[in-house]
Amino acid sequence: MRDNSYASVMGRKNEIMKQAVGIDYSKYEIEGIAFDYEKMMAEVGYSLEEVTKIQDETSVGNTPLVELKQINKLIQRISPAGKGARIFLKDEAANPSGSFKDRRAAVSVYEAQRNGYKGVIAATSGNYGAAVASQAAKRGLKCIIVQETFDSQGKGQPEIVEKARACEAYGAEVIQLSVGPELFYYFLLLLEQTGFFNASLYTPFGIAGVETLGSELNRQMIEKTGRSPDYVVVTHAGGGNLTGTARGLKKAGAAQTKIIAASVDLSGLHMASDRDFNRKSFTTGHTGFGIPFATFPDRSDVPRNAARALRYMNRYLLVTQGETFYVTELLAQLEGMQRGPAGNTSLCAAISLARELDDDQTIVVQETEYTGAGKCPSAQLSFARENGIIVRTGNPEDNCPGKEIVLPQSPRQIHYTEMDMKKIKTSYVKQAVKNYDKQDFSDTERAFMAQDLNMTVETVEEILASIN
Amino acid sequence: MSGKAIRGQWVKIHRIILNPSQRAPSVPEDTKKCPLEMWLNGYLDQDEAMIGEEVIIKTVIGRSVNGTLTEIEPKYAHSFGKPIQELLEIGPKVRDFIEQGDIDER
Question: What's the predicted TM-score (pTM) here?
Answer without folding.
Answer: 0.96
